[in-house]
Every structure is written in C-alpha cells, then in structure tokens.
Amino acid sequence: MNYKVLTLNKISKKGLKLLPDNFTVGTDIEDPDAILVRSANLHDMDIPKTVKFIGRAGAGVNNIPIDRCSEQGIVVCNTPGANANAVKELVVAGLLLSSRKVPEGIEWVKGLKDQDGLDVAKAVEKGKSQFAGPELAGKKIGIIGLGAIGVLVANMAVDLGMRVYGYDPYLSIENAWGLSRKVKRAKSVEGIMKNCDYVTLHLPYTDDTKNTINEELLQEADGIRVLNFARGGLVDNQAMKKALEDGRVAAYITDFPSEETLDLPNTINIPHLGASTPESEENCAVMAVNELVSYLDEGNIIHSVNYPDMDLGPMDSTGRITICHHNVPNMIAQVTAILAKDEINIANMANRNRGNYAYTMIDVDSPITQQVKADLYKIKGVTRVRILK
C-alpha cells in the first residue's frame, strides 16, 4: 500500500530518509495519509479527512487540536525523550545563569572599553564582587515532573553534588528505573517551594498543569531560583513578577519569552533553545518517522497522546483490522459479531483504552471485504477503521 506524508515544518533529512519506498513525502501533498509537524499551529487548519496519523517531532503537542483529532480517529504521537539530552544540557546553563550573574557581568565588562585610560584588569578586580553568586554543590533542587527530561536533569543535579528532590505523582515504572537512588521523593510541590534553593519544571502543559507556579504557591518561596524549560503557561507571570519584586524568587530563567516575561525583573529570557540542537532535531525526526511507518504499515501505536499504545508486532496473518473508537461498553461484542457473520476467523486480538477513546487490533485468517469495513463503521462510536493486508 502506498502512503502520502505532508510535512508542515522542516524535518531532518536523517529521519525522512527512513521512509520506505511506498511513502511519498513533501510540503505540498494533497490528501495526505499522515502529517509530520514540529511547531506549526494545526488548530486553525482544516485537517483533511484522509489523515490517519499526526507525528509531532518533539514532546509538546499544544499546537495540535488533540480532541478534534481523537474524534476524527487520527492517532497523534509525539517523541518523548528524543530531545531530553539537549534540554538537560540547557538546564545546566540555566542553573549557572541563575546563580552566577554571568550575563550581567559580561555586559558590564563590555562597557569598560568606552572608558579612555582605564586599567581594565584593575577595574575588573574591583567591580567583580557585584556579580558574585552561590555554587550549585550542596544546594537543594526540586524537580517537578520526572519524565524523560526530568529524570536526566535529576541525575545530572546529583552529579553536580546537589541535594535532589523529585515530585511526580504519575512517575512511570520505566522512568523510575532510570532515576538515581540519591533522588529523594518530595510529597508536594509546596514542600519543594518551601525547602529548596532551586526548582525546575519538567511537566507537560495541560488544563490541569496551567499556572502550576502561581501566587499561592509562591507564598512558600524564600529566595528560590525558578527555571522553566517545559512550557510558558506553567508559570503565572503576574504572580512571578510580584515574587521577583519582593525577593521571594531570586531569579527566573525561562525558555519561553513573552511580552510579560520581558518586563520581569531578575529574569533571563532564553529564545526557546531547549531542543535547538542538530542532534535533537535528528532524534525527534527519526523517532517520529519510525512511529509513522509502524502505524501506517502495521497499525502499531507508539507514544500516542490520544489513543492507547499497542503493538501486535509485524503482520503474519491474512490481514489486520484496526479500529479507533469511543471507550464504551459492548463495542468488542459488536465488532466480533460482524466478523462472525462473515465467517472471519480471529487469529489474534487486543483492545486497550485511554480515557474516552480506545483502540482495537485484530489479526484474521480470512479475507476481509470492504463490506466488513462498511459494517464496522456503522457501529456507534467507531471513528476510524483500517484494513491492512
């Protein structure tokens, strides 16, 4: 089967080269089967009905209308962990910038060249004390969010000699295995704000996490340094401004500048450089392409943000049926009844749900007709049916 892939941003060639010969890719594809995207906004896009898969070459998916895609039976996948090392390294820079006043010192030194007859070396020795700042070793740091990036940041902080506290009520078993034993569990975000010298955010932006750092929480702070390399909406900028002005927050480092953050005191605005490395862009593209091919060719879902992950492996039967549907009772009974009516034998079957939506994969040993597909679409709650051979 041949597939068409539309790219809405520049996607690394290293990833695109992995597309098999039965895939056509381009920036002007009509009626695509899949979309590969980085930061392009899809909320205002009329997504073609032919689209079955959207691959986000990155972690955040706030530029994609997830609810609309779910209802249209479009599987949306991101690439968690592909840019983790790039972000982790920038967090190291953020920690140092928040402590040592390096940017301020550099700007001050630049101004010395305009002073005629000045002994620069003596001026530097005399003025450097105004830029003094604390070391990281021995300080307490709280990591809010222990996903792929948060785990790397936590382990890195351990290596820097910091006392590390992690908070994540949804910590996965996989990420827990990668976490250093020296990372201590924090029972609440409030505890981190009250007891730590630094706090760094590494959680997704959702309705539940919006303004995680808010006025109430900042009341617990006392000279803390806050780093945000996750998403801008996680911090209430007006509450942060008050906390910076009265010293409850000593410094704020954000990778998500806005009109509001540019006016914040003691703030360093970094131009969203977290994943801006060639290695990160390549890793994200490679992962997104592999997810795309696996879904379109075999129906397997990897790293979905709206449907459950599922992998029945490569097809070794007559055919495979995949069904995206609402998570409602009696769905499987209706599906199997249709197959039984057409005397289609089920060789293997799996069903999982994720919130309001579910996914069913069925390997069969009998030929599948288009009438079977049409009958499956008649079931209330079915959003997408695919027949793979």
Structure description:
- The structure is a single chain.
- With 389 residues, the chain is of the alpha/beta class.
- Helix content is 31%, strand content 21%.
- It contains 13 helices and 16 strands.
- The strands form three sheets. Strands 8-7-6-9-10-11-12 form a seven-stranded parallel beta sheet, with helices on both faces. A five-stranded parallel beta sheet has the order 2-1-3-4-5.
- It is elongated, with a radius of gyration of 25 Å.
Which descriptors apply to this entry?
13 helices; Rossmann fold; 7-stranded parallel β-sheet; 31% helix; alpha/beta; 389 residues; 3 domains; 5-stranded parallel β-sheet; Alpha-Beta Plaits
Give the topology:
Elements (H helix, E strand, L loop, with lengths): L2 E5 L5 H4 L6 E4 L7 E4 L15 E4 L9 H6 L3 E3 L6 H17 L1 H9 L9 H8 L12 E5 L3 H12 L3 E5 L5 H6 L5 E2 L3 H7 L2 E4 L13 H4 L5 E5 L8 H9 L3 E6 L12 E3 L8 H21 L20 E8 L4 H11 L4 E9 L2 E8 L5 H8 L4 E7 L1
Parallel strand pairs: 1-2, 1-3, 3-4, 4-5, 6-7, 6-9, 7-8, 9-10, 10-11, 11-12
Antiparallel strand pairs: 13-15, 13-16, 14-15
